[in-house]
């Protein structure tokens, strides 16, 4: 059972994916955290993130590892837990440039496919290109959306309003454009993905809907 959950920032991918995995007894992989971890390492090591050749050259150096327990997600670089630092504004502003570099994506995608193949009962994998590129044969594909206003309010709320909703909205829109416009596996809905607009739904409603889709699919293949 492979569940691919894609969509832009703030649509609820992480919260939903963790809850769906926990409810169904599946593993969980946050691929955005991996691109963030790579970006954190580049910034910490003085790599010019706007120089794709420099990023490509350095991309083999850090060892990024992810835990797959939805109740205790973990992300580390060279053995150090970076779950806090990868959420900084600095990393958020730089991650789209790093994730657009094909050498970075090749390493990450290989790791993501191996992780999915090794999951004992199956896995929920969240990101931008899971249904289109990483795991195109996923059993269930979901594409989450929500209005830019709702997404910005959610993200700004997480930062306790430290960054205004308007500034957060601008930054989200810029990152969506970069992620959707890149050449190598851009953010996109797979043709066979089910789109769920989460703007007016509670987290529980989104989770219920996805769990129901997975159970329907399970019953169909039995
Ligand atoms: N359906 C929902 N309704 C309200 N808030 C939500 C919903 N889904 C997620 N959130 C909240 O929105 C924020 C962003 O969610 P997150 O799961 O991190 O999104 P993403 O991984 O797509 O960026 C979090 O604070 C989360 O608690
Ligand atoms: N499968 C993926 C997942 C994330 N990413 C990149 O990683 C960034 C951070 O992803 P994220 O899921 O942590 O972002 P948020 O939704 O938390 O804001 C995205 O803006 C993309 O640039 C990607 O390119 N491909």
TrEMBL record:
UniProt keywords, alphabetically: ATP-binding, Cytoplasm, Kinase, Nucleotide-binding, Transferase
Catalytic activity, EC: 2.7.4.25
Domain Cytidylate kinase: 3-215
Cellular compartments annotated: Cytoplasm
Residues that coordinate or bind ATP: 7-15
Any one GO MF annotation of this record: kinase activity
Family matches, as InterPro entries: Cytidylate_kin, Cytidylate_kinase_dom, P-loop_NTPase
Keyword Transport: no
Catalysed reactions, as listed in the record: dCMP + ATP = dCDP + ADP; CMP + ATP = CDP + ADP
Pfam families: Cytidylate_kin (PF02224)
Keyword Nucleotide-binding part of the UniProt annotation: yes
PANTHER family given in the database record: CYTIDYLATE KINASE, CYTIDYLATE KINASE/PANTOATE-BETA-ALANINE LIGASE
Family per record: Belongs to the cytidylate kinase family. Type 1 subfamily.
Name of the molecule in the record: Cytidylate kinase
Organism for this UniProt entry: Actinacidiphila epipremni
Gene designation per UniProt: cmk
């Amino acid at each position: 059972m492979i569940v691919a959950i894609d969509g832009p920032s703030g649509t609820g991918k992480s919260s939903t994916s963790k809850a769906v995995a926990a409810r169904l007894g599946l593993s969980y992989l946050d691929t955005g955290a991996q691109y963030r971890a790579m970006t954190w390492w580049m910034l910490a090591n003085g790599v010019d993130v706007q120089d794709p050749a420099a990023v490509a050259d350095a991309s083999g150096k850090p060892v990024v590892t992810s835990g797959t327990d939805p109740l205790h997600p973990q992300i580390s670089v060279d053995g150090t837990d970076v779950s806090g630092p990868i959420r900084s504004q600095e990393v958020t502003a730089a991650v789209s440039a790093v994730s657009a570099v094909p050498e970075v994506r090749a390493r990450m995608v290989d790791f993501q496919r191996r992780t999915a193949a090794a999951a004992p009962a199956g896995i929920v994998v969240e990101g931008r290109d899971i249904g289109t590129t990483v795991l195109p044969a996923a059993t269930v594909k979901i594409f989450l959306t929500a209005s830019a206003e709702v997404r910005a309010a959610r993200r700004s709320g997480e930062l306790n309003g430290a960054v205004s909703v308007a500034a957060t909205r601008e930054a989200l829109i810029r990152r969506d454009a970069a992620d959707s416009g890149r050449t190598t596996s851009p953010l996109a809905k797979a043709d066979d993905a089910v789109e769920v607009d989460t703007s007016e739904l509670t987290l529980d409603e989104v989770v219920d809907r996805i769990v129901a889709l997975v159970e329907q699919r399970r019953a169909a293949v039995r």
